[in-house]
Specification:
Four copies of one chain form a homotetramer.
Chain A (H helix, E strand, L loop, with lengths): L1 E5 L3 H12 L3 E5 L7 H5 L3 E2 L3 H7 L2 E4 L4 H9 L13 E4 L5 H13 L3 E4 L2 E2 L2 H6 L2 E6 L2 H14 E8 L3 H29 L4 H9 L6 H12 L8 H18 L4 H18 L7 H5 L4
Parallel strand pairs in A: 1-2, 1-4, 2-3, 4-5, 5-6, 8-9
Antiparallel strand pairs in A: 7-8
Helix pairs in contact in A: 8-11, 8-12, 9-10, 11-12
């Protein structure tokens, strides 16, 4: 059986490679074809459009940067959905807003297909080593059907609930990351302004009750100011934006989220968008 | 040797009890004398003013609610500093702003005494069980002198730096707590609005990379909505305020801190000030 | 010549009535047909779908609540654009985000038609008395062609620039309103908490250099707490949301806008959405 | 009768000059004595300390930059209060927090004197031309006694209420200014990012219902980017800080104020503190 994989960026290329390693035949598509070369060299078929992927696969994964890109690939002029054999299964691992996932689920169903939103927790390294955590929304039996594929790419699969709830959990998760990262950056800013070293602050705070595990992983980046991207700041900013839009759709207020979002927007404006999202610290507390 | 202890609230009463257990003779003072009864029953001397404490002790601890209360006790009309024998040592464990600690250190020195700012990390239970962490600012040899006393009340003593830096670390620490607590409350709000249960959200988020240790300790409070105070919301709000004032004094901007501070201010306005600070969740996501 | 008018809510019904008074034959459509009764009684033709309006008109106005509603009316299954005679002119007076206006302009052009975004400044009363101000984006000659129609509904027509810039100016305008309204509400909150009466505060502040003209119009509402809607709070909240989304699209940060937006979101959560937007004061400074 | 005047900065020097023009003998003090030269050349007596002013005057004005500076001048080692003849009258025109004014009123009364808080609305030019507006807190008969002096410096005198309420109104007033200025800067930022010129934005917005009078006065500064100070940004930032501290003292939440405050803090951090406060626009929307 062929497995389709659309979107071969930082994350997608590594996830697809793990599927390939597990013995699956891949049909891949990426806007920039050269990103597919490594996969093709190991036997993957390169499609020239999403539509061509659709013709050859009953299971397709998408891992794209924005809801618009996902919609184009699935439902656009050369979209894959209309070409897939009846009752196929589309798994969207992109980080999108929950209402978008629900809309895609309906669009798939209307065309006789099945859908799972299955975004992942974890960035570059876990993608490479197959240690991602999948947060899945949709029918339990659909999940069961593709569970071996997810296991090839991740260490854990959490079935959160119905269509959209995988995306919901992902957005909530990344919103929490953004807020904690921003908070930690402000804590270091205040502490260093008072004459405490970054080292002492990190050691004290990260070994204390506020030391969230991912902050410990970012510590070296902060101390060395090497913000090479694991998860780019502009992506986190996008996720905070999707969280804000979702809050609006739900009719709820999230004041602090919105302020943090604007701090990340300022960091992006200042040119840090392609750095790791921990570079928000470089915006809040620049070295002179 | 007598040890003075001024301020017998939730924290102070338990800290003093641990000093007493370790065999020290205490001279204690509290505005409401009855809070001293348990200590007096076990041999502590009750003073009628801070001044009376000053006359009997070369080492005095203060554990009071606000900078104003500390200043009144030390330097007011019946303050203890002017009565202490030359070269005495005052340890202020109250949570105050760093510039206040620096001012107190200077006032003490001017009167021939020594000063340590030594606020604590940890709330009710660690205070009771002697598991506090002291964050100390001041001279290393002064700290060495009273180290056995701190060890009787805490499990760890961190010498952060010069006068004021104990308070600096404490403020930075509590600011981080407040921001993470507020962030987690917003995350649960967004998640539940999207139909995910509080249990699933807590389990997923707290076992993930954003799961700060203290959030795990608050989980039961959140799920049961029993916000009996370990660390009252109005105190955390005060600490966020002190962080804001300190940022102003340092000439730095901390946008997110200020928004979180106002969320806690709204929670306090809504009548939650005496609840645990995790009750900010009850403000953000009330049960109807 | 027939003029089409789609959307007969608080604003649209009054604008259409002024076109009718000026002697124009109207073909109208509204989801709830009974809102068209007064116009029909005076000679307007009631269409059963937007499509039916399209068949009978070379000029169509839309005045709808959300971008989605506009898109449905113009481009949906029963949309009017595909039915209009070649080279027709569609004027959208709805308040929408600028990128949406640009997208609609392109959609119209692709189908051989012309487009103006022409949202209005002014609420219920100016709509009724023909005192609106049109903020127009699009080609000057298209504007010239329908200028007499706009003059029948408004006192002023400002040609801001190209497609989308009418909507841009409108969003900027309403964002300024929302921020000033929120600021004034906070000013009254602080002043009354300090014991100054609302009357003294209004008199002093509104006659001073910060007294924006629209605040003077809201003064009576604030003092009497009669927040019957001229411009509903939930609509202003929507506009602040569109401003936020537009800022994201433009890659810029607007921190204060986002905080005000969340204050309005909280007011809406508290049940004030259908009140006048000045009711944000009732949220910030409730009478007990 | 001698009139004392302490604090001869941008505002104080011009206010004192108007008193002098009205025929009053002045005894003046300023930390930097040379700022008194113009006044001395026209007959004023230069005192070497506040205390020396106190010895020669029954009425003293203070116009200083911070609460600390006021307290030092009045109650410090060389303070004037203790030297004034019994039942003297001290008028503090500095912008301070209300609780500070109340404390100064009590300190004066305790020493047998009377006090008015009488901060002014208006900056450099109104100070020069005697067009200030005094916002007065204190006893009506005390105000009546010095009314001719205030009339020599201002065009209007508003008796707001009891001690502290002059300061309250001033803080509320400046808080409103800061928020409207910040809002307008963000409006211009969004508008220009969408391709509308600053000129069109200013013309449309300032002639519309949101056009607060003081914004019109700032228009030229914004369009020419000449931010020579009329009212320095760092002073407005200080006033926003005092408003925030006052809100904390009053137990109320003002979320938007705090976000604007931090935007001004960032502008100050960026080196704009000594520019006019309208330079917040230069921070939000820098020319590249």
């Amino acid at each position: 059986m062929n497995i389709g994989f659309i979107g071969l960026g930082i994350m997608g290329s590594r996830m697809a490679a793990n599927l390939q390693k597990a013995g699956h035949n891949l049909v891949v598509y990426n806007r920039t074809a050269q990103k597919a070369e490594a996969l093709v060299a190991k036997g993957a078929t390169l499609a020239s459009t999403p539509e061509e992927v659709g013709k050859q696969c009953r299971v397709i994964f998408t891992m794209l940067a924005t809801p618009d890109a996902v919609e184009e690939a699935a439902l656009g002029q050369h979209g894959f959905l209309k070409e897939m054999p009846g009752n196929s299964l589309w798994i969207d691992s992109s980080t999108v807003n929950p209402s978008f996932s629900v809309r895609m689920a309906k669009a798939a169903q209307k065309m006789g297909h099945r859908f799972l939103d299955a975004p992942v927790s974890g960035s570059l390294k876990p993608a490479e080593t197959g240690q991602l955590v999948f947060l899945v929304g949709g029918a339990a039996q659909d999940l069961q059907e593709v569970r071996p594929l997810l296991d090839a790419m991740g260490k854990d699969v959490l079935h959160i609930g119905d269509h959209g709830q995988g995306s919901s959990m992902k957005i909530v998760n990344n919103m929490l990351f953004g807020q904690i990262m921003g908070a930690f950056a402000e804590a270091l800013k205040l502490g260093t302004s008072l004459g405490i070293t970054e080292e002492t602050l990190c050691q004290t705070l990260l070994n204390g009750p506020g030391g969230a595990p991912f902050l410990k992983l970012k510590q070296e980046k902060l101390l060395t100011r090497d913000f090479s991207p694991e998860f780019p700041l502009e992506w986190l900013h996008k996720d905070l934006h999707l969280a804000g839009v979702t809050a609006y759709e739900q009719g709820i207020a999230l004041p602090t989220l919105h302020t943090v979002k604007e701090v990340f927007a300022m960091a992006k404006q200042a040119g840090l968008g392609e750095q790791d999202f921990s570079a928000v610290y470089d915006f809040i507390n620049p070295t002179k």
